[in-house]
Amino acid sequence: MRWLFALTFILFPFFASAQTEKEIEVESPWARVTPPGTRLAAGYMVLRNRSENPDRLMSVSSPLAARVETHITLKDGNILRMREIGGYDLPGRGRLELRPGAAHLMFVNIKQPFKEGDKIPVTLRFQRAGEIKAELQVLKTDPPRDEHKH
């Protein structure tokens, strides 16, 4: 009977982690092609929280950038300005769309241009769900929008 108790202690973190990862889903992660010499790139995706509990995307990292910042775009008169913020809140049973002209990821000091077909690895760190890995597909143009998804 002790072995069953010990096995539970060993396996619990694995099962808890596997369940947590499914709470947050990353959908349609993508980035645009960058011109040679560019040091910045933007990334987009939809984050879907399957849990009843709210969560917060605290930080993002990628081996292909010195850092990845969470940004929003604000309209100041006729000028659009980007501003770094300290993460994004994700409501329980809710979704957050990172898209051009709105909330997005900013890759700073990219190590090489993003070329069409590349996959950009990222690690998303959530307050509750922990780390989730994803890959952004590099596209030449914006992906088609499915207007029927809400």
What does it look like?
β4 (65-76) and β5 form a beta hairpin. The chain has one helix and ten strands; from the N terminus they run αββββββββββ. The protein has one domain: PCu(A)C copper chaperone (Immunoglobulin-like, Sandwich), CATH 2.60.40.1890. With 150 residues, it is mainly beta.
CA radius of gyration: 18 Å
Q: Mean pLDDT across all residues, rounded?
A: 87
Uncertain runs = 3-9, 12-21
Biggest β-sheet description: 10 strands, mixed
- Please estimate the helix content: 10-25%
How many structural domains? Answer: 1
Structural class: mainly beta
**Head-to-tail CA distance between termini:** 49 Å
CATH C-level category: Mainly Beta
N-to-C SSE string, H for helix and E for strand: HEEEEEEEEEE
Number of helices: 1
CATH topology: Immunoglobulin-like
> Can you identify the CATH superfamily?
PCu(A)C copper chaperone
- How many strand units? 10
Question: Could you say what the CATH architecture is?
Answer: Sandwich
Task: Describe what is shown at a glance.
The protein is mainly β.
Secondary structure blueprint with pairings:
Blueprint (H helix, E strand, L loop, with lengths): L1 H22 E9 L7 E10 L5 E7 L3 E12 L2 E7 L2 E3 L4 E4 L5 E7 L8 E8 L3 E10 L11
Parallel strand pairs: 1-10
Antiparallel strand pairs: 1-2, 2-7, 2-8, 3-6, 3-9, 4-5, 4-8, 9-10
